[in-house]
Amino acid sequence: MIAKRITRRKIVDKFVASLALLSIIIAIIPLAGVLVFVTSKGLSAINLEFFISLPKPPDEIGGGIGNAIQGTLILIGLASMVGLPIGIFSGIYLAEYGNNRFGSLVRFIADVLSGVPSIIMGLFVYVVVVLTTHSFSALSGGIALGIMMIPVITRTTEESVKLVPNSIREASMALGIRRWKTIIFIVLSTAKSGIITGIMLSIARIAGETAPLLFTAFGSDLWATGLNQPISALPLVIYKYAISPYASWQAQAWGAAFILVSMVLILNIGVRFIARGRYRK
Amino acid sequence: MSPRPFLFGKKESKKVKKFFTGDSIFKHLTLIFALLVLALALIIFYELYSRSQPAINEFGLNFLTELKWDPVHQIFGALPFIYGTVTSSIIALIIAVPISLGVAIYLSELAPKRLRSPLSFMVELLATVPSVVYGLWGLFVMVPWIRDFLEPFLESTLGFLPFFQGPKFGIGMLAGGIILAIMIIPTISAISREVMLAVPDTQREAAFALGATRWEVIKIAVLKYARTGIFGAILLGLGRALGETMAVIMVIGNRPQISLSFFEPAYTMSGVIASEYIEATQEIYLSALIEIGLLLFIVTLMMNILARLLVWRMMRIFRGAAKE
């Protein structure tokens, strides 16, 4: 009787353990599926021309997404100009002076903002920037993406500045160095790798954002000429080509997806190596 | 978050009562940037709210209950989009919650030590694939699979339910729900795992000492203890599902209708904003779209606030318990 109950409990235990194992396998299947298809279909669409030339109409052979790669890089640059200063300085505030109610509020809002859908950020910048300047532009795209970087960078900067031991601050101040100089030259350089990690992660996150760019950068078939002009970007091209009815464009969508996914993965795996190096020390 | 026995700044500012010292300037400079983060949240709300005034005044609460979306005749009802967003998110939760809990349990309790970190990393990678790439994959790989295998299978087994009847396009509510599930699994499982790892080991040890099996330990000690945090994780996943745009737009069919069948196309709130803002040249049309955006903003904000509060409270309780 007791033996029977024990075997039953053991069976339930094994059963649940295998369900848990099964769920992680199910969870990883889509990742594997996406990577396999993006690689196999993407690689066959890629050649040198694909990287350096402009898009062509669907009935012409060839053409590339050079301007989209250029556009994505420009947008990341613009977004960094908006997101880095605000994110890093507010992160420093939270870590160094934010041990109060106001600090908790900012921390909380930053967390909540990171959960706001990206399309809302796009809509917001559309209303505020695009409608007032009467033009889609690279600049507005950069602002939308930059706003999305802020919460991530704020929190990662805060975390890594907090990890700097107080003994380092005290040592610096004991030498008569002012607190602000201590923070900028000593604390920040100690926390550098953590902050860079946050920056890379946030860039990986915004590089693939599409929804906010629809409203702002809009897309273009030409090379970027000015920041007040619409600009192309990899995610926009993937979207446009994927929903088009042309096989040649659909093939190029996979090529563009391959480039985008590689960028994002390289950033993420790079971060992992930086982080590992830091913890070993 | 270690308490800081570090008072130089305070003492100094008492001695030197000048505002224009380097320290004071630097502190206030960083304060301004922190204020910017707060201001940003307020400005987003204010802009969306003021721009949706025309639609709010014109349609009032009817906006939420009107079934028709007919911009040409200036009839704007958000109900089909609300239905699409809510239903696809619920489908996503039904699929994602059990899988995510399984993943979290496996990663925090069961997996062999050396597998834990690579497996967690793979689940995190799932979150980094851009949503448009999921959409591309969904459209060309998942949708044909749903059309040719999943929908016929569901119709033959569960076809007596109204949800699994009708023409099988592949594209539709079901595809939207599944792609959302894939996208929120990493969110829910990462946070649930964190919460489970934060459960004090004394809880587990006590259960083991009573002769519980591993599953019983998980059930009695871990899941019960961590349930608030897990609920928070699910809310965060729901928030993400409600606002997700690109992947869903590409597989859900974008037809503003309310149909019980999950095989039928549907339309989401974020979807209609993204695909129609360019046609919205009249003020009232744009205003209606912005009002949908405002609704989405408020709902996802609520979800996030509630979820963060739950997870934060949970973690604080755990930290207190661990210290004792």
Describe the structure.
- The complex is a heterodimer of chains A (281) and B (324).
- Chain A is built from twelve helices and no strands.
- Chain A folds into two domains: 2-45; 51-280, MetI-like fold.
- The model of chain A has no long low-confidence stretch (mean pLDDT 91).
- The longest helix of chain A has 44 residues, at 2-45.
- Chain A has 281 residues and is mainly α.
- By secondary structure, chain B is mainly alpha-helical.
- Chain B folds into two domains: 8-51, no CATH class; 62-323, MetI-like (MetI-like fold).
- Helix content of chain B is 76%, strand content 1%.
- Chain B contains 13 helices and two strands; from the N terminus they run H-H-H-H-E-E-H-H-H-H-H-H-H-H-H.
- Chain B has helices at residues 8-15, 22-51, 53-59, 62-65, 79-110, 113-128, 131-158, 173-198, 201-209, 214-243, 246-251, 269-276, 283-323, and strands at residues 69-70, 75-76.
- In chain B, strands 1-2 form a two-stranded antiparallel sheet.
- The longest helix of chain B has 41 residues, at 283-323.
- Chain B is globular and about 70 Å long.
- In chain B, 47% of the residues are buried.
- The mean pLDDT of chain B is 89.
- Chains A and B meet through helix 1, helix 3, helix 4, helix 5 and helix 6 of A and helix 1, helix 2, helix 5, helix 6 and helix 7 of B.
Task: Using the CA coordinates, give the radius of gyration of chain B.
Answer: 24 Å
Give the termini distance of chain B in whole angstroms. 18 Å
The topology string of helices and strands of chain B comes to HHHHEEHHHHHHHHH
Task: Give the helix proportion of chain B (percent range).
Answer: over 70%
CATH domain class name of the largest domain in chain A: Mainly Alpha
Can you tell me the CATH superfamily of the largest domain in chain B?
MetI-like
Determine the mean pLDDT of chain B: 89
Count of spatially separate domains of chain A: 2
**How confident is the prediction overall: mean pLDDT of chain A?**
91
The profile of the biggest β sheet of chain B is: 2 strands, antiparallel
Number of helices of chain A: 12
- CATH class bucket of the largest domain in chain B: Mainly Alpha
> Can you name the CATH architecture of the largest domain in chain A?
Orthogonal Bundle
SS elements, strand count of chain A: 0
**Annotation field: number of helices of chain B:** 13
Sheet bearing the most strands of chain A, described?
none
Give helix and strand order of chain A, one letter per element, not per position.
HHHHHHHHHHHH
